[in-house]
Amino acid sequence: MQKTVAVLGGGIGGLSACFHLSKSPQVSKIVLLERAGRFGGWLSSTRREDGAVFEHGPRGIRPAGAVGRNTLNMVEELGLESEVLPVTYDHVASKNRYLYVGGQLHKMPSGLGGVVRTVPPFSRPLVQSVLKEILISRGKEEDESVHSFVSRRLGTELADIAIDSLCRGVFAGDCRKLSVRSCLPPLYNAEKARGSIVLGMLLGSGPEPDVPPSTLAKRAAQENWAQWSLKRGLQNLPEALEERMRNGGRVEIQLEVGTIKADHIISALPAKALASALPSAAQPLSQQLLEIATVTVAVVNLEYEGSVLPVTGFGHLVPSSEDRGLLGVVYDSVPFPQHNRTGGHTTRLTVMMGGAWFQEVFGNPEKVTEQLLLDRATQAVTSHLGVTTPPIWSIVALLKDCIPQYYLGHWKRLENMRQYIRDHNLPLSLAGSSYDGVSVNDVIFSGRMAAEGLVGKV
Length: 458
Hints:
This protein is an alpha/beta fold. Helix content is 38%, strand content 21%. The chain is built from 18 helices and 16 strands. The strands form 4 sheets. The chain has a 7-stranded mixed beta sheet. A 5-stranded parallel beta sheet has the order 9-2-1-10-16. The protein has a two-stranded antiparallel sheet with strand order 3-4. Helix 1 packs parallel to helix 12 (236-248) and helix 14 packs antiparallel against helix 17 (410-423). It is globular, with a radius of gyration of 22 Å.
């Protein structure tokens, strides 16, 4: 029996679902609904005539783990291998990552030397925390905030500075509210399986999905890639998927929402958008969906003439105790110089602001001006990096409700929602960043899992 499947949302999760559905003989027709008039969701790149590329959303993808291999396998299937820009672990952008604490930049400890010596802004060698961690007993709670978990196992200093900054860099969120179980499952699972994060990392902390590596994924492992991008920016990935859909013949793309008949729906919409689209009979499900919060991030791309950085590396993060509104600055020209303009040396930087602190610092996202955000970003570059010249080019993107926040008990909410869908036999699958991970890899994998949940492995 052949099915018609409707996929809601043409971001990278929805496109991934279509890509996997289109390989199955069980699906006769796929209807992809997207309201925005463009595909790719938060994967968005500006390409200038002179060859410069600026990312407004994610800017590098990690190849690690099953979900990392899954994305690289897709890149190879789409014929994009020659477009990949890899950054290896021995590259300066992988080795040098900074924290801005106490008004100055501090290189994050890396390698053995960094772990056994006391490296500012930390007051003691990291190895002390690590050795003690092995002896700390398991937590009793079903869930815990990231901050509480790391404080308990590795000490408050690491939680206050490093983990606070990390959660701002990855989730634009507050580690005191985010769930360790949902946001950092490897840490949670390591403690559950081995009683220790350190032992979990050394011995492994549970099974991974089975994703055999393609030639490209094997190459990434052999060459020790830390992250990668594409020559024309990451927007090239959804563009290649869209082209495959348009030329594949089985996917019908609708930009206006009319009436469609379908046997099954895969929703890759944000949880709140799905909640408002559900019929009133599914009110308990809508209620759970509405409880998944999101945050708004301002992304300001800046370009400066010449080399302006006092240090080279990936970028720096800022803990909330230092500056609540400023999450971090990425030194884009260091990992991906290929995205600089041709002719004449420039430095590209991206300043990330707001997140969980957006309203508090900048006010209502509907009312904030681009000029205010641009001023705040250039001011940060001046004070953090000592850059005194104004940028020669800039662009401000306000990404409203772009990153879901997995607060305490997120895992339980997911369980309840999926149980409700099963109990009521709803022809609905959930994919996208609202549920099982916010990284590009997680979202692509969620699209694949939703498709395979419907038609089996393809």
